[in-house]
Amino acid sequence: MGRLAEYNWKNKLILVVDDDRASSLLLEVLISKTGAKIIFASNGEKAIEIFLNTKGIDLILMDIKMNGMSGIDATKVIRGYDRDVPIIAQTACVVSGDRELCLKSGCNEYVSKPIIAEDLMKLMNSFLDSSIVRRSSPTLFSKN
Q1: What are the chain's domains?
Q2: What is the spatial distance between Cα 18 and Cα 99, in angstroms, rounded to a whole number?
Q3: Would you give the distance in Å from CA 3 to the centre of its chain?
Q4: Does 77 score more than 70 pLDDT?
């Protein structure tokens, strides 16, 4: 985990959606080493509520299988409001077709649990590094 200090996400806000406390704690330990701010939601409904009431979320880690509203359904609702925020699906239940279902629902990428820390961090960084350009580009250019 020594290499995690290489990631500097001090100005980033990450929404972690997971109903498993152990998974949330692991993600908190990993992400906190980057300096990013983290908000947690324990289900899909709460994720939507937090997303709609919090400005500046740079990335969402979305558990797929949760009690109540699934991560798939929460992603679809969030996509109705924001097409650009990166959403990375995560699930312990790896079933054939899950990846395709996640991507079709609006997730940008998919990782399976148990999470390999360095792989997840690299994936997140690929979105966080480009999110500045992607999310700010509409204001950089005139529509004329």
Answers
A1: 8-124 (3.40.50.2300)
A2: 18
A3: 21
A4: yes
Q: Describe the strand order of the beta sheet including 87-91 as a list of residue ranges.
A: 37-41, 13-17, 59-63, 87-91, 109-112
109 is written with which tokens?
Answer: 């990428």
**Helix/strand/coil (H/E/C) assignment for every residue in the chain:** CHHHHHCCCCCCEEEEECCCHHHHHHHHHHHHCCCCEEEEECCHHHHHHHHHHCCCCCEEEEECCCCCCCHHHHHHHHHHHCCCCCEEEEECCCCCCHHHHHHHHCCCEEEECCCCHHHHHHHHHHHHHHHHHHHHHHHHCCCC
- Pull the structure tokens for residue 114: 């148990």
The token pair at 11 is 């100005």
Give tens-digit pLDDT for 86-118: 999 998 766 667 778 888 999 999 998 888 899
